Amino acid sequence: MSYECIVLAKQVVDARNITGEAMTPEGTVNRSALPSIFNPEDLNALEMALRVRNERGGKVTVVTMGPPQATQLLREALYMGADRVILLSDAAFAVSDTLATSYALARALDKLRPFHLVFCGRQAMDGDTAQVGPQVAEKISVPQATYVEELLELGDSTVQVRKDTEDGYEVLRLPLPALLTVTATAATARPYSAKRLMKYKRASSQLELFYSMLAANPSMSRDDAGERAAEEARKLEAKGLLIPTWTPAEIDAAPDRIGRRGSPTQVMKVDWVVLKCDITRNIEPAEDAVRKLVRDLIDKHILS
Amino acid sequence: MTSTSSVDGPQVWVFAEQEEGKLADVSLELLGKARELAGDLGGEAASVLLGHSVEPLAATLFSYGADLVYLVDDETLGVYRTQPYARAICDLVRKHKPEVVLYGASVIGRDLAPRVASELLTGLTADCTDLSIGDYEDKRAEKKYERVLYQIRPAFGGNIIATIVSPDHRPQMATVREGVVRMPEAAAGRDGRLIREKVRLSPDELMVEVIERYREPREVDLKSARIIVAGGMGVGSAKGFELISELAEVLGGAVGASRAAVDAGFITKAHQVGQTGTTVRPVLYIACGISGSVQHRAGMQESANIIAINTDPCAPIFQIAHYAICGDLNVVIPMMIDSYKSRGC
Lengths: 304, 345
Description:
Mean pLDDT of chain A: 92
Radius of gyration of chain A: 24 Å
Strand content of chain A: 25-35%
Strand order of the largest sheet of chain B: 7-11-6-1-4-5-12
Number of strands of chain B: 18
Helix content of chain B: 25-40%
Radius of gyration of chain B: 22 Å
Low-confidence stretches of chain B: 1-7
CATH architecture of the largest domain in chain B: 3-Layer(aba) Sandwich
CATH topology of chain A: Rossmann fold
Number of domains of chain B: 2
Order of helices and strands of chain A: EEEHEHEHEHEEEEHEHHEEEEH
Number of strands of chain A: 15
Oligomer: heterodimer
Number of helices of chain B: 9
Structural class of chain B: alpha/beta
Order of helices and strands of chain B: EEEHEHEHEHEEEEEEEEHEHEHEHEH
Number of domains of chain A: 1
Structural class of chain A: alpha/beta
Helix content of chain A: 25-40%
Shape of chain B: globular
Largest sheet of chain B: 7 strands, parallel
Distance between the termini of chain B: 66 Å
CATH superfamily of chain A: HUPs
Distance between the termini of chain A: 66 Å
């Protein structure tokens, strides 16, 4: 049998390189000021899905929810080998917390049924919550295995995986369909295929076309930009290069379950933390000073 | 002992994580926090104990601060599995309506809590570094709330600390890493009310099988170490960590590391100190080549004495260090080793 695989991926700001200018006064990240990347563990998830397809047959569909520029992530997924990619994007999805995000993704998955396996990265590096995977699994009523580091066996109706428990491992057998969240030590992502890169480098979504049209022509009206983008999109579609954009209407999402209204959690405040020690003593990096420090610590019984 | 709860005031719950009849430290730590929060809410601290033949653990939970324990003892709960555990908790929450539910941010807690939050359609904040009770004004909706749970956590690479609230949803839920909350003193003989409950599972919820389980003993015990010598990116390589290990060995301490050093493959994750690793409070913490992100500092700032060695005079680690040595760790550490070895002279 062959396997329908769906990968849920997120474009994240590279959290290792966040500077003060990249934060808005509300404490949200000003995405445009920062490089955005394919969430690292989502790459492992995509690789695992591609291996299933290559070895057993089937299709790999990648879904991401994000702003129009998240189309870039989907292009990268195409370069790696995804068969189909879908952008979930709309102003109504903005500021969704993990619950609202999982609802939207689950609605998209409902539209993509039937599927056998859903793969996600264990967590996104911008929030580190590891919540969306299990929340989606609950919403689509399938079993989950989190922290998966290896797919051991894939049968007609079950999948067997090894789960990293940090202090060891577990082997779990789940009925299909199932959702797996994948760790960084799982399947290492393949490089882009040069052939696919040439083929898909112009692939785009209508939303992305619209915003790049506006950015390139600041004097253009939104209506004109919209028309031009629609025209471009038709051309791309004819060549099989249009990345579909799904809005809440396309996935039949209830307005009160997405965005701010669908998010139980709110950010009350954000603080830049300044941790300070009352007295810091500067010690010269020299023999005498270090010797004196060590003696001090021994005298204070900090060192024995 | 009673089968219905007749409790005054709001309840703060702690999921009592156990494996093979041993309670996780983080659950006991959280009971101390739950007592504090329950005090501020004018309510009670409770613990949810799921498993098979685990009733004796209730006494431990009482001694660490639970006023009551909800026990679901069932063969199907013998080994942790997501769906049966989630079903049990969701049913208990619907019946008893706690104000707050806390989970350890362990592999189990991070698997379970989001599944529960999704079914209950409530908020969940991951990896909190502090929790407290306070008032909240939603300026956008012009609504005021009294005594909600402040869920405090670093975000976005650790550059900020965010306070998260879920004002309109109950229960308010959060996960907390092991070691973040101080372990309360156990009061032997302290008693509470044991409430037995049952779980009804559908065949669908029992389909996942645990075929094999392997647990290795803890490779390093950072939490009980008196002295920790930790290395960061400044150490430069896995080879460079030999010097860190040498100093740790000479001083009789454990080896710690920053997340960056772990991610770079210098050393294993078991050594990681910080918000996503282990939180430590040793008598002496020596940070070598660690710049000191908020996440790292959150995991070690309560150390009684901190020595920071770094070539960058602006490294944030110096702000919390008691002793700041601006210099090359490859020069300074050998000096420390020599000084300590010749201490009798």
